[in-house]
Design goal:
4 copies of one chain form a homotetramer. Chain A has about 260 residues and is mainly alpha-helical. Among the domains of chain A are: about 40 residues, no CATH class; about 110 residues, Cytochrome p450-Terp, domain 2. The first copy, chain A, is about 60% helix and about 5% strand. In chain A, strands 1-2-3 form a 3-stranded antiparallel sheet. In chain A, strand 1 and strand 2 form a beta hairpin. The longest helix of chain A has 25 residues. The radius of gyration of chain A is 22 Å and the shape is flat. Chains in contact: A-B, A-C, A-D, B-C, B-D, C-D. The interface between C and D is large, with 99 and 98 residues. Chains A, B, C, D: This is citrate synthase (unknown stereospecificity). Chains A, B, C, D: GO terms for molecular function: lyase activity. Chains A, B, C, D: Pathway: Carbohydrate metabolism; tricarboxylic acid cycle; isocitrate from oxaloacetate: step 1/2. Chains A, B, C, D: Belongs to the citrate synthase family. Chains A, B, C, D: Its EC number is 2.3.3.16.
Chain lengths: ~260, ~260, ~260, ~260
């Protein structure tokens, strides 16, 4: 393996007996006590220190994704904790496993759609035309447009206007935010349905404004929800619901078999 | 199930079509743009708003646990991503699964030890006597004392003095911090070994100062490391090491079988 | 790394361009079509070919652990699949994460207890005395005796007499099976309660008869339940329950917050 | 919830105090000791008892996927076990999380491709034409054809001829097996490359012969690999490689940072 020692590398962090350095900064002395968790997440991912504007926007982006009540993800984590309370980390992991294309992961779909809309569109694209083409393409493929529509939050998702307001205040209401808004209008026009931009749609656009690769965008929901799930597990440890739910569900689901 | 509808409940959050409320606060209007991620984690877990002192300490506590280079956890996440790049959430989950009694989870052991030391010790315990008893008990059971010793960071773990300094500055250097320091001194005296208080030992004590139940303490490492792992997966997606490592490891491990 | 190439090794399997060899056997030609899955699992773990008796017993042991209706583990897997149907493997993983000290993992506790009972007991131990000591020790520590008692299956767990019958027929009803039976009798006598040997208690004893290290015994439940969970996910994909349950649970749990 | 009690159901299993019934069969008396693990998996998934031919083929199908040496999945499981040896189930779960579109999950892609090729092709399709169309479609989309090619096993994957031989012997070498063989020939002709049908390609075709929905096909690899991973964790517990690998990898990856 000698000949290959140069070719694996990580640029994130290193340790020596008396130092721990993350993204070029001394963790104890340049980071601890001087940065908040969202800013440190920004540093970890981008290798850059967030500006005050980026800090406000990125913290808000992550906070939006932490908690949304008793979700399937929270139920999975609580059920897992019931069987293995000694493995709290495995209960969080179980809850995270379901953050895919249906829940939370839709932020990824929204960011991907917006990046792709601008692909090859030149320096001064007609945003209205891009919106029309995007909606037409999704409709031709009979795919739902990611980031639009919500089963509960309608006619508007209350997080969206606030996120866009923050984007405006922090210099991040650029072409991606505008495009997702035009896509919404066009989609409502084309379908005749009420299709609010949901939180994952707004966040997808903001992720594009930051310049994050779409492949990592799902990761923001994952890291945020890990925090939320620890909250649910704490509550489950103090005031459990999993046992009762289990017995109720089992009884209902197999009643027809027991006759 | 009608008769039982009162008996499952969660006090964390709820949604209506036009509102999302977490711990009694309106998420869009009272939280987004007004709180950092660490403070929101504090709210999620304690249902209380962090004071400025708690905010500094809790953000530092979480940041300490985000990143520590190429750990077994990071390797597991990267290897998982190589096989299922479409399931980023599963790669993070895989990395979290190993945060148990050996790595990261030791914060839990430290907090538990400190809480138990004060059990039944009255209002004005002799801390030196508690330290001596704790060390003697662990030695009698031939167990390592959680939070002491580090394979790399010696004679001191550079995170520890900084964390204790922050505890001091923020009014959190109370009896638990003092006890873990006395336990270290006693353990070094009793064993003749250099046994620095490592980061998980310092953090365990600080978790006790906050009053967090020891059963949830591991969760801080889990939520923090989720952030770190997303950073590793982003890097793996741009500059992978998993394929090369896999082939090298497979070749080495089975060389004796292929003859 | 050159100097260390000798020191990592795996003895399980290796591949060359035209061969795949597992535990010394050519997979395509000596295994496929000539062995059943349980026997291959036995080979994978022990490096030995199961005798007909071992084959019957080991297949029965694993089958016992595959399926037990709508368990917390099955609910976790189904909830995870709802959010990430494209990541079936993550849904199985989520379901497995909860097979810990409360469910399934108790087989481990039973095997450990039985091995430890014989530690230092010499070649011709008095089984009745070992049973009495084991029960007394658990009662002194106020711990439940692993493998005894079941919330549903009483006064007997219907799997246990059948498993012991198979152990008898296949030459595996040795000292561990006898000891767990004596422990049950002693526990019922000492507590005055009905404490059937449950399936994990019977399986723990049978694992000891096989000589499996107790640390790996939980793994049998894990591999078996992976099969069961795929069955649940298949059913969930065809006839889902997770969405309805989610909405019901969320409504109930937060009704008091919405007022 | 009363009004909805009819609408969640599971047809897999149920329990009463003295019975456990899986797919209509009494587990202790009709299954244990009378069925092997592969046949029980078949029952769990299909609700049918395997014929002797189906039994041989299905056991071989699963066994093929159990073990393939030190894979990324095995490395992830071993690394996880190093950090949380008390949570064996979480180590298996971590290893399974990576069985996605790159490894193992390709069986799914192969089955999906074969089913779709026959969609709308009528009762007596021209297999050669379907093969040509399939290859042309994948090439037009610049996608690799699932189930063809292998980095190590070439010019043939040694599992494939044996699996097809078993399919022949057991009456399962029908139109899907023929089509995948024609697709391979066409792909080699069109690309000029050596593209062996790999094990996941052969297994995908055999899954279609069984009639399994393509969405569940990945599950066979997942349940099989769970067995293999328990074998790796057992070996890791007795002869660990994870610590040494970790330290080597960390040293190499961050050497350029430490300078």
């Amino acid at each position: 393996m000698t000949g290959k020692t140069a070719d694996i590398r990580s640029d994130i962090a290193y340790s020596t007996p008396d130092r721990i350095v993350v993204r070029g900064k001394d963790l104890p002395n340049e980071i601890l006590g001087k940065m908040n968790l969202g800013d440190f997440a920004y540093l970890q991912l981008t290798s850059k220190t967030a500006t005050p504007e980026q800090s406000r926007m990125f913290n808000a982006l992550l906070i939006t994704l932490v908690e949304h009540g008793i979700t399937p993800s929270a139920i999975a984590a609580r059920m897992t904790y019931a069987g293995a309370p000694e493995s709290l980390q495995a209960a969080v992991a179980a809850g995270l496993c379901g953050l895919g294309t249906v829940f939370v992961g839709t932020t990824e779909g929204s960011a991907k759609m917006l990046y792709e809309a601008f692909d090859g569109a030149g320096d001064h694209p007609d945003l209205q035309a891009l919106a029309a083409k995007t909606v037409a393409d999704f409709r031709a493929r009979k795919q739902a447009i990611p980031g639009l529509g919500h089963p509960v939050h309608k006619p508007i998702d209350p997080r969206t206007p606030r996120l866009f307001q923050l984007a405006e205040e922090n210099g991040m209401a650029g072409k991606y935010v505008k495009l997702v808004q035009l896509i919404q209008a066009e989609a409502e026009r084309a379908t005749g349905k009420v299709l609010p931009i949901n939180a994952t749609g707004a966040l997808g656009a903001i992720c594009c404004e930051f310049g994050f690769p779409w492949k990592i965008v799902r990761g923001f929901g994952v890291m945020a929800r890990a925090i939320g799930l620890v909250g649910h597990i704490l509550e489950e440890s103090q005031s459990p619901m999993s046992y009762q739910l289990w017995h109720e569900i089992e009884d209902r689901a197999s009643a027809h078999l027991r006759g």
